[in-house]
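Protein in question kept in full:
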Amino acid sequence: MKFCSFGMGALLAGVLTAFSARLYAANPPTATPAQIKAFQTVADKAIGYLQKSQNEDGSYGAQKMPAITAINTTALLRIGRPTNDPLVAKGLKFLESNIHDDGGIYGPKSRLQNYETCAAVVCLAAANSDGKYTKILKQADEFLKKIQDGGVDEANVGYGGVGYDGKSRPDLSNTSMFMDAMQAAGTGPDDPHVKAALVFISRCQNLESEHNTTPFAAKFNDGGFYYSPASTKEADANGGLRSYGSMSYAGLKSMLFAGLGPDDKRVKAATEWIKKNYDLKSNPGMGSAGLYYYYLTYAKALEALGQPEFTDAKGVKHNWRKELVAELASRQKPDGSWVNDNRQWLENDASVASGIALLALSYCKPQTAANKAAPQADAKTKTSFSTPAAGAKPVAAGSSAEFKKEAAAFRKALAKRDLKGAKQLLAELEKSAQSDADQDAYSRLDLYDQYYEGFWVAIGNVARSLKPTDEIVLGNARAIVVDAEPTSMTLRVDGQSRRFTIENMPNNLALAIANQWFDKSAKNKLFIGAFMAAEGAVADAKKIWQEAGRAGVDVQSLVALADTELTDK
């Protein structure tokens, strides 16, 4: 966990060594005013439409499908509406009214139990910052796993897939939504249900390999994806199942969520298919059918792929977020809704198409300074801080050998992030400090401990404020929040969900959170410096403390600490 002689810039922007080699590439740190305006104009019109079209019970449309309410509400949350926003609150209440004893979240007599429950899980996870839905999410997760087609034999072509209700044949669309729900619930790629789903997803790819030995794979062998190997209804004259846009993006995204990396041949083949078929005017292979669903799978997959710019087969670079915003704007109706002239999959219903389009739009949210929260690592996070006065007495020479030994044990406990153990050792140090030199050293170490503990309290405050889909920027990379609590957080990295606590959080991740969310006051450099010193970067800690000193903060005792106790062997 130690830093390796990094400079301050590297410490704050370095890539996590504990993560996989590839992380999601970051959005541009700041969007242009024109991009922000373009996004906000479309979003505001769409939200205006939802305000006028939401039913009194919180649902949308004549059919009052929980899935549509979940999709709309998820989009609102992702765009930045809080859970107490009237539109969001009513939508959440409607979803709560559709929770069943079996753990599923679906409408009365629904034949779309997987589809509706998956959409609801993603929504409730996004609204679960206070833990209100934790139990409900766990029950829904168990419900979904029960209706997955585990089969008795992996050789069964439907093994690992999910259909609309656990009874119908499995398909990639429903399995893709299942993967979204698993991600939202924090279920990682090592889970047997995710592994089983990957088997089915691989069998939906037109790629002849050991992962797809069905007779369909060799017919096209182009790397794209089709709807289901369990149905031959869509087969062409030669018995092949054609690849098309929405399924290809859904397949790629689901493989990334299942833990496959960019070097896996399945991911490479899918990416190549997308390069050759990059399009926003139509759903490749399907024309206008399912166009808005296509936009949603496009946005999810390209975010998961981690490329702010996507280069197509002709070498043309696409700022895909900017292009999608423009395309959605061009198709938006004057009242803020979207409607597809093609009736396929109910997209001719504004309540259906508009929710899907708005959710796709939410993946294009510009990265701006306004997106950032600003919790402060100040006295509000720990009331007992007592920075020494400017006139603090000079360092007394000659701490006893026994005191130095105990001080070394205290520093070792901090380095292990054993806050409780460090506090106990600090109490012993206070008893051992007999000479003036020992007492002065104890005062500096006590202050150091307070700033170090305050750093983690502030990290916990940030975690409490994080919502699923928030992004942690790490230089030219990013991690996406799945869920977060004051003492732990789950992040999606390289298509995998990883859980971090104080004990195992990589140091560069902790610093990235501090750099992104702490208030930029000079005082907060004292907290960051304490963390850096505990992690072994004493020279860099001293530099940041000195920067705070030049800004008028009293750092005399901390700088003295760096020159004495923190350099003792």
Residues 1-29, 369-376, 378-397 have pLDDT under 50 and may be disordered. Strands lie at 24-25, 309-311, 317-319, 471-474, 477-485, 488-493, 496-501. The chain is about 50% helix and 5% strand. The longest strand covers residues 477-485.
